[in-house]
Amino acid sequence: MKNWFEQQLSQGFKGIIHSYDKRVEKGYHRSEKRQICCVSISQLQTLHNQDNWVGLKCVVMVVRIPHLWNQTTREVQFYLTSLNSDARNLGKVIRLHWGVENESHWTLDLTFAEHACGVRTGHAPQYLGLLRRIALNALNLEKSLKRSNRQKSNRAAMDNNYMLSVLTPSLSQRDDTSQPACQ
């Protein structure tokens, strides 16, 4: 896909129906230019094992050029999607996804100092990441203490009764959306 997109970009997508959007966002001493280019699957040659991609509608290339202080980098990413080939909409969807992902990493780092963890070998980083996410979900469900997740985590480490209330929340403490629809 990378080679195909590079070739089409150099030729100006001659004869290829595509969708294109360009955005510039600024804030916090940072600016980022994003170019989104979408091409319907019907415009491409057959992909490897294309039959395995049920519902696949288009391929998306996103070029990000972030500029922070004196440093500018360039990143190119590709996405496969079952959404229609609309660069503006897909750019918003991709941005929203990364916003959620970044928020999750920020919360995990703030609550559990994830970046300071020195575990880097084998499957241990994945297992610890999974355990942190389970713990974060349990802390979010616990509503009796109006504190930050970090404060709740520290309290759970020092108070076994509170730890049990975090690990076994009653249905009355959970949001209505987490209760079963049918009983």
Brief descriptors of the model:
183 residues, alpha+beta, 2 domains, 22% strand, elongated
Can you give me a brief rundown of this structure?
The protein is of the alpha+beta class and 183 residues long. The protein has five helices and five strands, in the order αβββββαααα.
Walk me through this protein's architecture.
There is one protein chain. Helix content is 39%, strand content 22%. The chain has 183 residues and is an alpha+beta fold. It folds into 2 domains: 2-45 and 53-97, no CATH class; 114-171, no CATH class. Strands 1, 2, 3, 4 and 5 form a 5-stranded antiparallel beta sheet that branches. Helix 4 crosses helix 5. The longest helix has 26 residues, at 87-112. The radius of gyration is 22 Å and the shape is elongated. The protein starts with a helix and ends in a 16-residue tail after the last helix. Mean pLDDT is 84; it is low at 176-183.
SSE blueprint:
Layout: H1 2-10, E1 18-27, E2 30-40, E3 58-68, E4 71-72, E5 75-81, H2 87-112, H3 124-141, H4 149-158, H5 160-167
Antiparallel strand pairs: 1-2, 2-3, 3-4, 3-5
Helix pairs in contact: 4-5
User: What is the helical fraction, as a range of percent?
Assistant: 25-40%
Radius of gyration: 22 Å
β content, as a range?
Answer: 15-25%
What is the overall pLDDT average? 84
* Unreliable stretches covering 5 or more consecutive residues: 176-183
What count of domains describes the coordinates? 2
Main beta sheet: 5 strands, antiparallel
Q: What structural class do the secondary elements suggest?
A: alpha+beta
